[in-house]
Amino acid sequence: MEDLEKMEGRIIELVEQLDEEGVIRLANQALDAGIEPLCLLELIDEGMNRVGQLYESKEYFIADLIMAGLIFKDVLKLEKMTAHFQRSHSKRIGTILIGTVKGDIHDIGKDIFRSMAEANGFEVLDVGVDVPKELFVSKVEENKPDILGLSGVLTSTIEAMKEVVEAMAEAGLRDTVRIIVGGNHLTEDACKFIGADSFVNDASPGVKRCREWISSPRGKGVQIND
Amino acid sequence: MNYAVIACQTLSDELTKAIYDTGCQYPVFWVDSKYHLDPNKLRDKLQQEIDGLEDIDCVLLAYGSCGNGLVDLEAKTADLIIPKTDDCISMVLSEPGKIFNRHKETYFLTKGWLEGSKGLLNEYWSTLERYGEARTKRIFELMLKHYQKLLLIDTKAYNIEEWMLKAQELAEKTNLKLVTTEGSIWFLKQLLTGPYDENFCVIKKGQKVNVNDFRSYSINS
Fold this sequence. Notes:
The structure holds 2 protein chains of 2 kinds.
Chain A: H1 4-16, H2 20-32, H3 37-56, H4 62-76, H5 79-88, E1 94-100, H6 108-119, E2 122-126, H7 133-143, E3 147-151, H8 157-170, E4 178-182, H9 188-194, E5 198-200, H10 203-215
Parallel strand pairs in A: 1-2, 1-3, 3-4, 4-5
Chain B: E1 3-8, H1 12-22, E2 28-31, H2 39-51, E3 58-62, E4 79-83, H3 88-93, E5 100-102, E6 106-109, H4 111-115, H5 120-143, E7 149-154, H6 160-174, E8 177-182, H7 186-193, E9 200-203, E10 218-220
Parallel strand pairs in B: 1-2, 1-3, 3-4, 5-10, 6-7, 7-8
Antiparallel strand pairs in B: 4-9
Helix pairs in contact in B: 1-7, 5-6
């Protein structure tokens, strides 16, 4: 059996190469060899970051990002992983309500964010795509999440995101929740225009931001962006 | 006044026709369509192109907001004129003075999009070669799960019959219904000739493109 340290490096490489069968095989071996599930998840996350970089450098397509997301989910479904996370996350660290805003039906990034957030201990309520502001407001009122996540890819979603934030304020809910917006087109100016607490262009920094919020005192966040 | 055009390769057929129709003789600097994928890299590339121009008073950008890739561009060397529209799709589908309604469940295509190195057609074949049929089916089902239609836009700038066949092949592979609609190159023609009215963002030399410059130009149905 390979040394665990070598296995860890190899797992990252296999994720980067998008070798689904190879990742599952080696992940199972690593778990049998005693790797901590959270550590395995960090390796997969590192591999996915490398995939993201290859996508940005135009070597990978969107299909490859989706494949990376599928590999991530495959690993989460491994028996030792599900057993561990069921035990350790019987009390979730927080709740995130997410949705793709009205006018947009893209959800690849949102789904990857959801998987990562759940793996990091969050309960995630996904209200779907093309979600009108009224539904965001009613679902926040009903479920009282710690964080509201708004996703979108189209340029026009900036207006839709702003409308959600304004609707939350009109309903008296703005101060009950932190708001993070996610999308490749978002900038600091766009975030300020929307009135969100933070913005991200990728799923992984988004989950990191949510973890920081949960573990810090309530207040306005600062943006993080890879 | 000296003009130059900086244009996305995706619009090569449409802009070439607009140039022919208007008799415009401005120099055109083409930018690879791959920059569509990352608005931040698009911004950097366009800024580099703008900064590299000499003896130009006004730069005409054949782009829309493009995922806010054009926001924060600085008009360092010349004025900037940008169509006040989301992207090249809304550019060829919108009508003068009317708010553009983008249908959500539709994947829009032109010849430029189909033949682009990172276009859906190339993506499909690349995915098939890399992952095989079963995984490709799985990936594309996820990628396109909320889409119902593939819409090929006939801008009259390319041979629609030839590209209809390719679009049909893609529709069959992705289980989408293929439809066509007519588009127009009025926006590009007006970009070349003016007037630079409410349909355009006019950024004077020394200023910067702001996200508000593109506001109130589109809604979604």
